[in-house]
Amino acid sequence: MTVPAEILKKVKRVEIDTRKLVNNIFSGEYHTAFKGQGMTFSDFREYVAGDDVRAISWALTARAGKPYIKTFEEERELTIMLCVDVSGSQDFGSKTYLKGETLTYVAATLAFSAIKNNDQVGLVLFSDEVELYIPAKKGRAQVFRILRELLYFKPKKSKTKISVGLDFLRGILKKRATIFLLSDFQDQNYDASLKLLERKHEVIAGLVQDEAEFNFPDVGLIELQDSETGETLMLDSSNPAFREQMKTRFNKDFESFQKNLKKAGVDSFRFEANDDYHKALLAFFKRKRTK
Known about the structure:
Layout: H1 5-33, E1 38-46, H2 58-64, E2 68-75, E3 79-85, H3 99-116, E4 120-126, E5 130-137, H4 140-152, H5 162-172, E6 178-183, H6 191-200, E7 202-209, H7 211-214, E8 221-225, E9 232-236, H8 240-264, E10 267-272, H9 277-289
Parallel strand pairs: 3-4, 3-6, 6-7, 7-10
Antiparallel strand pairs: 1-2, 4-5, 8-9
Helix pairs in contact: 1-3, 1-4, 1-9, 3-4, 5-6, 6-8
C-alpha cells in the first residue's frame, strides 16, 4: 500500500517531536521505571565475605576446592503493548490537539522509549471491536509502522468497548507484558476484564481528557454531535444549570474510572489534550521508579 506524502510528512513530524523528548528526557526515566522480567544467570566468581551464601555453587566449590557463587543480572528485555482507543470520542478537542492526536503523541513517545531500551513494542487499536493488531517486535521500522497506523488508520466503528481490547490481549499474549491502555475511558463494565488482564500482565491506564469536558465554556447556543452515536442536539451553553450538569456528568465518569482502576489494582496517569502531555508522562515515570 502506498502511503500518501502528507501522511509520511506527519509521521516524520511526530518522529522528530517524540524522539527529541525521548533522547533528552525520557530514556533514563523509562529505563529505571520498568525493571525487566526477572534475573538470569550471568557467571561464577569467588565468594567474598558478605555474599549471600544461598548463591554458592556447591558443585563448583567442590571441584575448585574454594567457594564460588553464581552471579545474576537483570533480564532487561520487555514487551510493551500499546492498546489505543480509536472510537469516535477521540475526535473531540478544544485546544491544540484532538484527544486522539494526543493519544498518538503519547503512544509514539512510549514506542520510541521502548526501542531505545531495546524492548519489543506492539499495537492494538480498538473501538467496540479490535480494529488492528500489530504483534510486538523490536526496531525502528516497527515504530514507523506503529506511527503510520496511529496517524493513518480509519476505524470501521465509532463506539467504545474497552473490554474487547483487554480480552483480546489476554487471549493473544503468552508471555508477561507491560500494557499501556490509552483512552478517554468513556465506557462502563470493563473492570472485570481489566482485573483478569492485570493478574498476568502489568497494565497502566493513560486517561486523556479535554478541558472543555470538565469546564464547559459559555459560547451561547451550540449544536453538538455525539461522535459515537451520531445524535445531534442544540444546547444553550450560557445556561449555568447546563454547564453544571456537564461538570457533574464528567465528575461521575471520572469517579467511575478511578473506582474501576482501584478494584483492578491498576496504576494510571492523566493528561489533557494539548502539547503538555509529556509532563504528565514524565511525572508518571518518576513516580513509578520510586515505588
